[in-house]
Amino acid sequence: MDRRKVDVAIIGAGTAGMGAYRAARKHTDNLVLIEGAHYGTTCARVGCMPSKLLIAAADSAYGMTQGPVFGVDPGEVRIDGKAVLERVRRERDRFVGFVQETIDEMPEAHRLWGHARFVDAHCLVVDEKVEVVADRVVLATGSRPNIPGFLKEAKDRLIVNDDIFEWAELPASVAVFGPGVIGLELGQALSRLGVRVRMFGVGGAVGPIRDKRIRDYALTTFNREFPLDPDADVKAVVCTDNGVAITFADQHKDEATETFDFILAATGRKPNLDQMDIQNAGLGLDERGAPLFNQYTMRCGDSHIFIAGDANNDTPLLHEAADEGRIAGDNAGRYPDVRAGLRRTPLAVVFTDPQIATVGLTIDQVDERCKGCFAVGEVSFEDQGRSRVIARNRGLLRVYGEQGSGQFLGAEMFGPAAEHISHLLAWSAQRRMTVNEMLDMPFYHPVIEEGVRTALRALNRNLNIGPEVITRCMDCGPGG
Ligand SMILES: Cc1cc2nc3c(=O)[nH]c(=O)nc-3n(C[C@H](O)[C@H](O)[C@H](O)COP(=O)(O)OP(=O)(O)OC[C@H]3O[C@@H](n4cnc5c(N)ncnc54)[C@H](O)[C@@H]3O)c2cc1C
Ligand SMILES: NC(=O)c1ccc[n+]([C@@H]2O[C@H](COP(=O)([O-])OP(=O)(O)OC[C@H]3O[C@@H](n4cnc5c(N)ncnc54)[C@H](O)[C@@H]3O)[C@@H](O)[C@H]2O)c1
């Protein structure tokens, strides 16, 4: 077996691993980036980018059906599934190509191909061919779909997100298990592209929404497009000659059986730590077998091992993976002089229509932090001026603030332009702005952000800081 001795070994060449590599390289040239399956990153290959490309096609199809609202008749809308999927792949391959170029620019000695596992805390074996003895290690192994056992009854009709982007044609029907982020994004997109979709959940959750009023609004809205039961009673999943038959209790609690071409498992993801003999690394593990780590240094206990990205299952989002990779790589490089890195205000966006966004603390976290002394401001987008003008007037925004200080702490939104509005709100939260300070900022007319001002004014009033809110106030133009 070949043997290599390095200062830093990074396992996984995804977003977190590549970020860790760049940061560690500022400290040492004796390092290696180990990849066992694909270069290109989950984000570009099968995650953020191809999913958003599919959603863009679905948005376009849906937008055409909305033409008559404005008196514009697009004629018959025909969806060419083959062309839709070809564009998804073509653009996806461009993004993957950019990542591959970055990998190609790395010195060959810094790249090692193969699956890594721990022999002991410093020794890794890669594909049983190379032994890597590393002074420090970064774990950036990402995650993969977590599929409940009963779905495996669907056999070759069971798919995960990766498979959709390889389809040559759109199927006629898909049952989606898991109305989480992936299920909602891909399920709604398929539905808008003409695929019959039914969605099954457990426990009542809808995406990442924690605020009950927003969850209920979103559930009603999605159910206008496709059936979504967030707490479904599924009795059987059986593979037949015609597809996969699912027997479930319908909305009247009667037993119904419906057959689909495929089942999409979107039931959460699990870290890729289970096939690498992590127990040999000598780390403190939680009840699920994942290493305990510090969120600011990414260090596992007081060890020489750091963990970043989806592998630590903390906040499995792209920008967090990038930040965590950079912090982990920098600390692995500078070890033992470990430093705390910048962690940003929580921000997540789900690219459904309307979009879902979560910012800062959830309503339960606000309640806990303020010991009940907080208030909520709300706006409905149904009568909001700009939203009505462009016929995107669906949704709710709820903003949370602390009594006394008047500090803005967080928000949840299901509504138009949430991807943009959530940034304004997250930036305000990170700057620790008060609601008054946010209301001092300029608001143009007529824009969707005027709805944010309405919610903030309501919040200020409910905090007993601002004046009584005037219903349909015309000072700033109609529909604010
Ligand atoms: C369908 C979908 C849509 C998404 N959309 C968004 C979005 O819109 N916005 C957003 O912020 N996030 C989104 N995400 C989440 C985002 O893609 C991930 O948080 C991010 O890609 C994680 O990066 P990572 O570096 O941790 O993992 P990865 O990019 O998965 O990299 C991990 C790498 O480690 C390798 N590896 C694993 N084990 C070993 C081993 N033992 N030895 C060697 N190599 C190994 C793997 O092969 C892989 O290449 C989406 C995810 C999915 C699945
Ligand atoms: N726009 C984005 O930022 C984006 C998009 C896609 C994915 N992601 C990231 O990827 C992560 C994983 O996404 P995900 O959608 O797989 O996970 P998730 O945790 O968001 O959703 C999983 C859903 O499956 C449900 N579920 C679990 N077991 C089930 C069962 N047996 N039957 C039916 N439903 C079941 C859960 O209740 C939950 O609603 C997300 O947490 C997110 O961080 C982000």
UniProtKB/TrEMBL annotation:
<feature type="disulfide bond" description="Redox-active">
    <location>
        <begin position="43"/>
        <end position="48"/>
    </location>
</feature>
<feature type="binding site">
    <location>
        <position position="310"/>
    </location>
    <ligand>
        <name>FAD</name>
    </ligand>
</feature>
<keyword id="KW-0274">FAD</keyword>
<keyword id="KW-0285">Flavoprotein</keyword>
<comment type="similarity">
    <text>Belongs to the class-I pyridine nucleotide-disulfide oxidoreductase family.</text>
</comment>
<dbReference type="GO" id="GO:0004148">
    <property type="term" value="F:dihydrolipoyl dehydrogenase (NADH) activity"/>
</dbReference>
<feature type="domain" description="Pyridine nucleotide-disulphide oxidoreductase dimerisation">
    <location>
        <begin position="348"/>
        <end position="455"/>
    </location>
</feature>
<feature type="domain" description="FAD/NAD(P)-binding">
    <location>
        <begin position="7"/>
        <end position="325"/>
    </location>
</feature>
<keyword id="KW-0560">Oxidoreductase</keyword>
<dbReference type="InterPro" id="IPR016156">
    <property type="entry name" value="FAD/NAD-linked_Rdtase_dimer_sf"/>
</dbReference>
<feature type="active site" description="Proton acceptor">
    <location>
        <position position="445"/>
    </location>
</feature>
<dbReference type="Pfam" id="PF02852">
    <property type="entry name" value="Pyr_redox_dim"/>
</dbReference>
<dbReference type="InterPro" id="IPR001100">
    <property type="entry name" value="Pyr_nuc-diS_OxRdtase"/>
</dbReference>
<dbReference type="InterPro" id="IPR036324">
    <property type="entry name" value="Mn/Fe_SOD_N_sf"/>
</dbReference>
<dbReference type="InterPro" id="IPR023753">
    <property type="entry name" value="FAD/NAD-binding_dom"/>
</dbReference>
<feature type="binding site">
    <location>
        <position position="268"/>
    </location>
    <ligand>
        <name>NAD(+)</name>
    </ligand>
</feature>
<protein>
    <submittedName>
        <fullName>Dihydrolipoamide dehydrogenase</fullName>
        <ecNumber>1.8.1.4</ecNumber>
    </submittedName>
</protein>
<dbReference type="InterPro" id="IPR004099">
    <property type="entry name" value="Pyr_nucl-diS_OxRdtase_dimer"/>
</dbReference>
<feature type="binding site">
    <location>
        <position position="52"/>
    </location>
    <ligand>
        <name>FAD</name>
    </ligand>
</feature>
<dbReference type="Pfam" id="PF07992">
    <property type="entry name" value="Pyr_redox_2"/>
</dbReference>
<dbReference type="GO" id="GO:0050660">
    <property type="term" value="F:flavin adenine dinucleotide binding"/>
</dbReference>
<dbReference type="GO" id="GO:0003955">
    <property type="term" value="F:NAD(P)H dehydrogenase (quinone) activity"/>
</dbReference>
<keyword id="KW-0520">NAD</keyword>
<dbReference type="InterPro" id="IPR036188">
    <property type="entry name" value="FAD/NAD-bd_sf"/>
</dbReference>
<feature type="binding site">
    <location>
        <begin position="178"/>
        <end position="185"/>
    </location>
    <ligand>
        <name>NAD(+)</name>
    </ligand>
</feature>
<feature type="binding site">
    <location>
        <begin position="141"/>
        <end position="143"/>
    </location>
    <ligand>
        <name>FAD</name>
    </ligand>
</feature>
<keyword id="KW-0547">Nucleotide-binding</keyword>
